């Protein structure tokens, strides 16, 4: 009997000791976790982690804009992301110009986007960035190249975009305008930067499948940046599981598209061509270094396809709500462009000052890239007094900056192109107040080309068609604020369903003639 009691006592003691060890270990782990950057109980971090912000705001960018407006310095901290977010122009200039070397893209950013963008210009620093920027600058900066690009875009507008809209006018057909602009900008980018017509590509799947893969890869890559514990997505990638497996499959399709672009460029020859891809191919010593060329292609597809399509989509979303702006645009087009011209000439595009202002105003409210992040190399203090520790992600939020009263006045939420005009001429603002095209050393090289492409499309489409966004009652979003999908660029969740009608004033319709 005594032996049984002693055995029970020993087992109980062992169990008690084991439980005590477990409790101590859990307490230790909890203490360690609480010391980590992803553990924070402040209201902002709690709202971010629990997603409770979604009860009041449709979009994460709107919540950020609200927090930044409430902050006296227009700077906030998301501790669980180790991220300092600012809408202060002085801080933006500090990052992009005054202390540029202390705020590179950084290795953490490169790791997040490395699988998709590789060593492309948007994902590197130092010498690789300088080399690619120099090459791209030579391609995009010349007047002859800009004229060639203008002709290529005008050809796409006349040959594909306008006929598509013309067909859609019959029978009240509903179009996803966002998808239309994505296809258009992809075709234009292929001609301008790669010297290829997408129709010549020999692909095993429809182009729509590759476009969907590109969008999915962008969305899942962007999701990585929102994770409070990067170890989670890194482990999933190692195990090829869940969202990381989907990302890998999507990138596989994107790689096939890039491979075919490289193959066709080699097949047609590149030594005597002046497109961007040919220039890089001529500088790569090893013909087998297709991975580097692939990274360049993906980066410029992201810049040329997604940003232009995003800007055009949001522009027509706003235009459908402001018929007065549409009328003013038509008045200017009729005044500048000949009556019988389908598209504006290269010189005429520069005279479309109101159109230029309307584009800038649209991107103030809905920038194609809503925010951009850098990583702090050494401890620093921002102009507003915010201390930034080494390794901190520092983000300037262009979307929020477009909604600051002290920057744009009490009517900052309104769509008013005239705020950009002085005596009828376009009057730009500081790039640090309006960082849609970045600023300083990293200012967007494709800015002028993107504006040319958008003005060409807007002048041609607005002159001939009325674009009506489908109302919420019909399953569209015409009466609601836009809801954005997760991605590296701003895209509308569910697209932009529209109906297109020919302009009622038949006398205003130009002939389908030469440019």
Automatic annotation (TrEMBL):
One of its GO terms (molecular function) is iron ion binding. The chain crosses the membrane at residues 12-33. Its cofactor is heme. Keywords: Heme, Iron, Membrane, Metal-binding, Oxidoreductase, Transmembrane, Transmembrane helix. InterPro entries: Cyt_P450 (IPR001128), Cyt_P450_E_grp-I (IPR002401), Cyt_P450_sf (IPR036396). Heme binds at residue 444. Belongs to the cytochrome P450 family. This is Cytochrome P450.
């Amino acid at each position: 009997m005594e032996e049984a009691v002693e055995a029970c006592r020993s087992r109980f003691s062992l169990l008690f000791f084991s439980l005590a060890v477990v409790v101590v270990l859990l307490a230790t782990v909890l203490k360690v976790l609480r010391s980590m950057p992803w553990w924070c109980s402040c209201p902002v971090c709690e709202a971010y982690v629990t997603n409770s912000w979604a009860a009041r705001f449709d979009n994460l960018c709107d919540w950020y804009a609200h927090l930044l407006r409430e902050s006296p310095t227009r700077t906030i901290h998301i501790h669980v992301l180790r991220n300092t977010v600012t809408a202060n122009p002085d801080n933006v200039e500090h990052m992009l110009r005054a202390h540029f070397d202390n705020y590179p893209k950084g290795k953490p950013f490169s790791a997040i986007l490395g699988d998709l963008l590789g060593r492309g210009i948007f994902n590197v620093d130092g010498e690789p960035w300088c080399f690619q920027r120099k090459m791209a600058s030579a391609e995009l900066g010349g007047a002859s190249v800009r004229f060639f690009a203008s002709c290529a875009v005008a050809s796409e507008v006349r040959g594909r975009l306008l006929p598509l809209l013309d067909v859609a006018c019959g029978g009240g057909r509903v179009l996803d305008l966002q998808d239309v602009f994505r296809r258009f900008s992809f075709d234009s980018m292929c001609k301008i930067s790669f010297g290829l017509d997408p129709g010549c590509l020999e692909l095993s799947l429809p182009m729509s499948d590759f476009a969907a893969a590109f969008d999915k890869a962008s969305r899942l890559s962007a999701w990585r940046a929102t994770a409070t514990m990067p170890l989670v997505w890194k482990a999933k990638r190692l195990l090829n599981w869940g969202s990381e497996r989907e990302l890998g499959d999507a990138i596989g399709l994107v790689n096939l598209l890039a491979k075919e672009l490289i193959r066709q460029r080699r097949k047609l020859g590149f030594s005597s061509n002046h497109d961007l891809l040919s220039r890089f191919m001529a500088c790569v010593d090893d013909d087998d270094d297709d991975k580097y060329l692939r990274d360049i292609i993906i980066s410029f597809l992201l810049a040329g396809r997604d940003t232009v399509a995003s800007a055009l989509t949001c522009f027509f979303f706003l235009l459908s709500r402001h018929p007065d702006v549409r009328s003013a645009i038509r008045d200017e087009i009729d005044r500048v462009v000949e009556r019988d011209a389908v598209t504006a000439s290269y010189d005429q595009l520069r005279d479309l000052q109101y159109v230029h202002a309307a584009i800038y105003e649209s991107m103030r409210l809905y920038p194609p890239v809503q925010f951009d992040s850098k990583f702090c190399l050494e401890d620093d203090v921002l102009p507003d007094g915010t201390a930034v520790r080494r390794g901190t992600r520092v983000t300037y939020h262009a979307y929020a900056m477009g909604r600051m009263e002290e920057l744009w006045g009490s009517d900052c939420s309104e769509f008013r192109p005239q705020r950009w005009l002085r005596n009828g001429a376009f009057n730009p603002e500081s790039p640090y107040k309006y960082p849609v095209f970045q600023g300083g050393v990293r200012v967007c090289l494709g800015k002028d080309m993107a504006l040319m492409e958008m003005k060409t499309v807007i002048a041609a489409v607005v002159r001939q068609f009325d674009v009506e966004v489908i109302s919420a009652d019909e399953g569209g979003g015409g009466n609601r604020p836009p809801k954005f999908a997760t991605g590296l660029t701003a895209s509308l969740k569910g697209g932009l369903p529209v109906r297109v009608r020919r302009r009622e004033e038949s006398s205003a319709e130009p002939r389908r003639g030469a440019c």
